[in-house]
Amino acid sequence: MSTDTSQIELYKQKVGDLGASLVTPGMRVGLGSGSTAACVVRALGRRWQEEGLRFIGVPTSVDTAHLAESFGIELTTLGKCPELDLDIDGADEVTRQGYNLIKGLGGALLREKIVRYAAKKFVVVVDERKMVDQLGDHTPVPVEVTPFGWEATAKHLEKIGANIDVRLKKDSKEFFLTDGSNMILDCNFGLITDPVKLENEINQIVGVMENGLFIHCTNEVLIAGNDGLHHLK
Ligand code: 5RP
Asked: 2-6, long-range: CB within 8 Å, 24+ apart, which pairs?
């Protein structure tokens, strides 16, 4: 099916509204990163201002924190609030079966994964271009690594099959750095047949902080499609 981009953008706003409708007063909520998660934050901002909805948010990135603060949304940290009721975040690939994910093209994967595992429930918001039969379809696995000795870490990743692009800042030759001052190695493994094994293998490598595979941890998916919204549970 061909994809009408302007229509998808419109539905992304609607997915944002649907995601925001899952938040009830007093909830502790993880706020994801990326353009689709931003639609949720904006919709929550409108509910905050227009309906007087009150909840507390834990942002997964500095950008998300700034966006939420621009609406006056109250934010906290996992230090003060280590358990969350709900986390809503975007993704780069989602499997149609099992809702396994690749995340991190926006570079926030470490914080996103920490926030996800602090939450009782995880809802993913995407547009239909992200839906795949198998992970690795069109997205590398972003791997966040500590800058010290990253070349050695990259060699270990190559030994388990990664074809690596070191992520750079847009239109620059400088390394991209995450909010936590780490680097990202975009690791292409081709189609991923055993994501659980790969997630474990990557995380056993010294120098790796975290990888963008989110396996068996998604409860619901909200999809903005050409033909409307889909809510998968
Ligand atoms: C950031 C992420 C984002 O959730 C992911 O990249 C999706 O972003 P978008 O909604 O803009 O496509 O994982 O680290």
From this structure: 2/226, 3/128, 3/129, 3/226, 4/226
Mutation to probe ligand 1, out of 3, 9, 35 (largest number of atoms < 8 A from CB):
35
84 within 8 A of 111, measured Cβ to Cβ: no
Q: 10 Å Cβ neighbour count for 157?
A: 25
Tokens of 91: 């993704």
Q: How many CB atoms lie within 10 A of CB 4?
A: 11
Beta-sheet strand order (sheet of 220-225):
56-59, 28-31, 84-89, 119-127, 220-225, 228-232
- How is residue 202 written in tokens? 């990557």
pLDDT in tens, 54-112: 999 999 999 999 999 999 999 999 999 999 999 999 999 999 999 999 999 999 999 99
pTM comes to 0.96
103 is an annotated ligand-binding site residue? yes
Cα–ligand 1 centroid distance for 106 (angstroms): 5
Secondary structure (3-state) at 8:
helix
Q: How far apart are CA 28 and CA 69, in angstroms?
A: 16
